[in-house]
């Protein structure tokens, strides 16, 4: 049965999408069959997995409004071990439609059930909000990875995020399911700047063992890879960020198996 992990933080620009695509790529490198779900309107994860925006009709948002099934929207990628459920930039508010569904928190959970066993890891790239879309991601998940950028105000908003995680945990408990914080991932550490290390210490003091040992360094290859629309682990496999993401994949596996 596939392990489902949401990559969530309502702050934008903290490395959610970068983590989702590079973790997907690194897990596949270790022979794992992976499904990457893009739940962000910006559809960056979709593009970075080499999927052209014009090449598909329906997206994951059509699954949330029950206008499509997962099988209908599943896209293959160049990597035979990675499938993607793509997102589409859309003007209509999906959240407004989701609210009308009496099963509103569990739509994704229900939709993923039939295909879960086809994958070893299912990664969900969450949007930068704590609305119904992120709630759906967490309700469907076994665990959450929280990327935290090693910058000023890194911890800002984490209380709200933890409250949302607790809310989901209490709802899942009714169904005898759990949601674990798999780990807090420190991202974009600039090793030349002392303040970055202050954030590392602050986050480690607060979250203790929950912090992944792997820290993702700030690395120009990473932003270049985004520009060319590929995971950095493929764009520049020997770069520091690639090495770190491959290390993270091993850590994620060791936390699960
Ligand atoms: N380790 C890194 N080093 C350098 N740039 C990074 C790194 N991780 C992410 N970025 C860049 O930071 C920006 C925001 O990252 P992204 O993953 O899109 O964040 P989010 O999904 O949380 O909004 C992107 O332009 C990305 O290329
Ligand atoms: Mg993103």
Count of individual helical segments: 12
Low-confidence stretches: none
- What is the strand content? 5-15%
Main sheet record? 7 strands, mixed
- CATH-assigned homologous superfamily: P-loop containing nucleotide triphosphate hydrolases
Distance between the termini: 12 Å
Q: Radius of gyration, Cα only, in angstroms?
A: 17 Å
- For the record, the CATH class is Alpha Beta
Give the SSE order as H and E letters. EHEHHHEEHHEHEHEHHHH
State the helicity in percent bands.
40-55%
The CATH topology corresponds to Rossmann fold
Q: Please identify the structural class as seen in this structure.
A: alpha/beta
Give the number of domains.
1
The assigned CATH architecture is 3-Layer(aba) Sandwich
> For the residues shown, what is the average pLDDT?
94
Topology:
Blueprint: E1 3-7, H1 16-29, E2 34-38, H2 44-48, H3 60-64, H4 70-73, E3 75-76, E4 82-85, H5 94-99, H6 107-112, E5 121-125, H7 132-140, E6 143-149, H8 158-174, E7 180-187, H9 194-207, H10 220-228, H11 232-235, H12 240-256
Parallel strand pairs: 1-5, 1-6, 2-4, 2-5, 6-7
Antiparallel strand pairs: 3-4
Helix pairs in contact: 1-12
Bound molecules: adenosine-5'-diphosphate and magnesium ion.
């Amino acid at each position: 049965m596939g392990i489902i992990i949401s990559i969530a933080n309502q702050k934008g620009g903290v490395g959610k999408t970068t983590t989702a695509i590079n973790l997907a790529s690194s897990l596949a490198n270790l022979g794992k069959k992976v499904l990457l779900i893009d739940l962000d309107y910006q559809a960056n994860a979709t593009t970075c997995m080499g999927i052209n925006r014009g090449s598909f009709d329906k997206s994951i948002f059509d699954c949330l409004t029950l206008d499509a099934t997962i099988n209908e929207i599943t896209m293959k990628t160049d990597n035979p071990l990675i499938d993607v459920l793509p997102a589409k930039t859309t003007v209509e508010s999906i959240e407004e439609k989701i609210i009308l569904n009496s099963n509103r928190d569990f739509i994704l959970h229900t939709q993923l059930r039939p295909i879960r066993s086809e994958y070893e890891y299912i990664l969900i790239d969450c949007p930068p909000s704590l609305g119904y879309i992120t709630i759906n991601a967490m309700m469907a998940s076994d665990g959450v990875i929280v990327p935290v950028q090693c910058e000023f105000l890194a911890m800002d908003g984490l209380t709200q995020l933890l409250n949302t995680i607790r809310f989901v945990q209490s709802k899942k408990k009714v169904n005898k399911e759990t949601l674990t914080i798999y780990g807090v991932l420190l991202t974009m550490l600039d090793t030349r700047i002392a303040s970055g290390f202050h954030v590392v210490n602050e986050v480690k003091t607060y979250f203790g063992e929950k912090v992944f040992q792997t820290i993702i360094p700030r690395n120009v290859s990473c932003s270049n890879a985004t520009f060319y629309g590929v995971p950095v682990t493929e764009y520049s496999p020997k770069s520091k960020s690639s090495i770190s993401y491959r290390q993270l994949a091993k850590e994620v596996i060791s936390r699960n198996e």
